[in-house]
Amino acid sequence: MTQTRQTARPSQLQLSMKDGAPTDIALDPSSISDSAIYSRAVKKTIFCVAAATAFGLGLLYKFGPDEGAEFFAGYLVEQSLSIDNLFVFLLLFDYFKVPLRNQDRVLTYGIYGSVVMRALMIGLGSVALQRYQEILLVFAGILVYSSFTALSGYISGDDEEEEDMGENAIVKFSKKLFATTDSFDGNKFFTIDEGIRKATPLFICLIAVEISDVVFAIDSIPAVFGVTENPLVVFTSNMFAILGLRSLYTILSKAAKDLEFLEPAVAVVLGFIGSKMVAEYFGYAIPTEYALGVVATFLSFGVGASVWKRNLDGEATAADSSSDINS
Fold it and tell me: How high is the mean pLDDT of the chain?
């Protein structure tokens, strides 16, 4: 994917973990319990997925199977790419030491900004495609290149190297925009420090999140245009994926280390969509139903293989512990 997408995952950065959740974002003791927050996030995620499914079925009923299949394919692609986005958000929250009780504020404003930016980019992309069909090849090139670099990094192991977020270009740029303070002031974005109004780390983190989302959209928008050029389907599949980010983030903070094979699966999907765009530009149409099947198959394999490996590792750890006790 893009350079930002190749950021190492939190588990690979050796974040301190406790019961699967980063301890650096431990809950405020005065807030509700960890398990309650996680349970609520699971319910919200199920609701968001159910709403997207209902909308897709509505499109299928109203406009026919092609539009329904396009929506579900676009939604699957956008949702899988959103998971990669959230891994970077985890890193940003860890770098800026944002308390968990304040992370929701950043995510909320980040989602609002993402909705506006995605709407503008989708609108511009739709107009450009109507006037210049050759832009499909540009989009295809972005996806194929992103796929190649992500797979190359995964195979070579480069994506497992720890990234110093202090040297990240987005983080450094964000810090240069405003006079800043190193101290938080509750959930405020700005505070008065030595008589000067300064941005808190919470606001700088928000800027970094928003800029990261723009970078992610370089993959995301072309990917969904590779599935369909219908502006309604492109926009709604993006919106349903984005609106589920808040609850999905809470789940991901526990499941980050368990999705080892999702990233290469997403990279293969991006390569397939890019190749599909090239084929269709030269007159070789690939039915949306087939594309949906390919996308669903690779993403399911990525998740399934990750769960399978996690179970194997758990059994191996249990066996080692048992042998140590017996010895």
Answer: 77
